Predict the 3D structure of the following.
Amino acid sequence: MHCLYDHSGALPTFLTVTDGKRHDVRVAKERYLPLSPDSIISIDKAYIDYKWLYSLEEKGVWFVTRAKSNIDYAVTGQHQVSGKGVLGDERISLQGPLTKTYYPKELRLIRYYDEERKKTLTFLTNNFNLAATTIAKIYKSRWQIELFFKWIKQNLKIKSFLGTSKNAVLAQIWIAMCYYMLLTYIKYQTKYGYSLLKLSRVIREMLFERTALIDILTLTKGVISKAT
């Protein structure tokens, strides 16, 4: 399952399902991703395809990713190193025979020490305006999509499948995603104060009760226990 996750709304804005042999970046190149100019996309190293990254540049889309260890480049300039954890902030140009053709413009390479993970990370971006620490935080926010996948696997029953045919698997995945979208929409519209997991459990417990949704959303754990 390949997903474009909107961090601001905590919602998947694009989703497609392929077989396990389809590489992530191939899906990104073959499908139309709803990315508007000036948006920022945070991607892992699996999506590093310089021709595709340059297509984002031409569309006015910013990207933040992890640089590969074997990146061939030359330093063309320096940014002032500032911010906690920032070890280096450079302007670079790609030097590989193909990569410099695929991405002819300059890029920004940031080396950052992550205190939590006790690890030095190297970020690659086409954004030269944001602070290096902001770039690091943008990449860190990519973890939200990992939490999203973990949540749907644990709570929407797609860790194992009821059927093994292609249609059965796709149906189960899309039903789970529709349910997630409805839950998120209800939580947003009603300003429900508890977690999405609690909302899911409350609705599950009251599914066969003839009770108004607004009344269900005001139920507490203690009230639900007494009712059941």
